[in-house]
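Data deposition worksheet. Section B asks for the primary sequence of the deposited chain exactly as it was used as input, without tags or linkers unless they were present during the calculation. Section C holds the resulting structure in token form. Section D is free text for depositor observations; keep each observation to a single sentence. Incomplete worksheets are returned to the depositor.
Section A, Depositor: J.P.
Section B:
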Amino acid sequence: MDTRPELVGSFGMVASTHWLASAVGMSVLERGGNAFDAAVAVGFTLQVVEPHLNGPAGEVPMLVSAVGSAEIDVIAGQGCAPASATIEHFESLGLSLVPGTGLLAACVPASFDAWLTLLERYGTWPLADVLAPAISYARHGYPVLASTSATIAAVADTFRTHWPTSAAVYLPGGHVPVAGSRMTNPALADTYERLASFGSIEAARDAFYRGFVAEAIVEFGRTPAMDASGRAHAALLSADDLAAWHTPIETAVYGDFGEYRIAKTGPWGQGPVLLQQLALLAGFDLADTGPADPQLVHIVTECAKLAFADREAFYGDPAFAHVPLETLLSRTYADARRHLVSATASFEQRPGSPDGIAPILPTSMGALGAGGAGVGEPTVDARGRTRGDTCHLDVVDRHGNMISATPSGGWLQSSPVIPSLGLCLGTRAQMFWLERGLPNSLAPGKRPRTTLSPSLALRDGRPYLAFGTPGGDQQDQWQVPFFLRHAVFGENLQAAIDAPTWHTTHFASSFYPRESYPGQVVVEDRLGNAALAELSRRGHDVVVVDGWSLGRLSAVSRSEDGFIHAAANPRGSQGYAVGR
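Section C:
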């Protein structure tokens, strides 16, 4: 069942996780901005209207296809660990995992500089103009989402007891705001306005990372705040950490699937795991199954288990760890691994040995079936309960410029509000392991192996499709059924997004408390009773959730005939695509 039509036009398309942000992006295109100007305006607007999903001090990886460039660029908007963030320091605090909330898990804020880098290199508008919509919503108000209200309700006691600066912003009058009520953030509006007033992008960057924003971050971080460990800890961020940050621009890594070439971030993110899954799937005759066939669900799930086992054994910041990525993404390696997919569900973690390298998995791979709710990113936990996570946006303009970006971090529920700024620090350092000798072990200056994973696909060598989703470890799972439905089974973007989907929680979560559920597959009930029964017969531990609860994909595309297309997720009712 298609909930909406796929949008088709020739001028411009914007798809995101919030209707106001999508409308802002379209307004930029209609006033002469390009796709990158629009994306920056969308990104700043999302920081205001989805504060439980992202913020100015979070992170945002982007894939950029600019007209005239033969390569897909990666704006690597993931901050690094502070210089004083050592395993020894965390051990001295009695911690075996990095907490998922509070100040201790803060990496260097990367989102603001990443958006400025995009605007500076590819955009055409002044910073003040792309910030104007976000300033207006922060100053004059926006309607509170039901999911925002629910998130605030879940942490209201923490706000009242331990984080009074958050209570001042998100508990107006001492109460949880109801869905649809007006919410403002005057301090954030002031911060944006002050940054815009510096005029140039370089001056605004300097004000954030060396000026008044950095000073407020460092000063506020000196006072310990309660975190997920049940104790209060101060931040590790220093003025030097902030001043040294710059957003790298990298070349994407690629994987081929039929006529498509898919671009992803490097292995400092989990992006290559999508390419590994597609390489495995390329050896199956998927067209003989069907988009809702339990055989397809089984094969996709088992391939995901193999690819994510490699993610845990080998992925990490390549500036600190040797990642045999060329081999991991090779056809030869996929061919050698594919035979591990059998007719029944696996309950084992089975990383490979690329280039003869013995895999090393964390000994604390997660408490099996842990009940800790965590406060990390997955849109759903293993039992389908929702919690705050991430945003996503895709933009294509009439010139052919295209971008896919996944903003996250700096959530209202993860860290107390810095009152003079109206923003929260991120907690992405929770993705590091505190066990030594792993590719993703904590080290000063290192980027955590993030889950944020935008996608951009070329068809016959031309930029064709930008897509992605929130959802933590599920991001590069939910994208696979979507892509197969479109690329293999010929469904349009909206139909592929609307279709029932699934994921596995077989491997350790990337978020505190790092729980895992071996053999488990979480499936929307719309897949049908017969398919669910067949998956159980094959040995999967099937968890059935509401038919409209998994995945929050959006996508835009540009076809050979010059038409551009867009679609967005109807789940949760806030994702919308706009265009003409």
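Section D:
The CA atoms of residues 2 and 498 lie 6 Å apart.
The domain at 250-388+453-579 is CATH 1.10.246.130 (Serum Albumin; Chain A, Domain 1).
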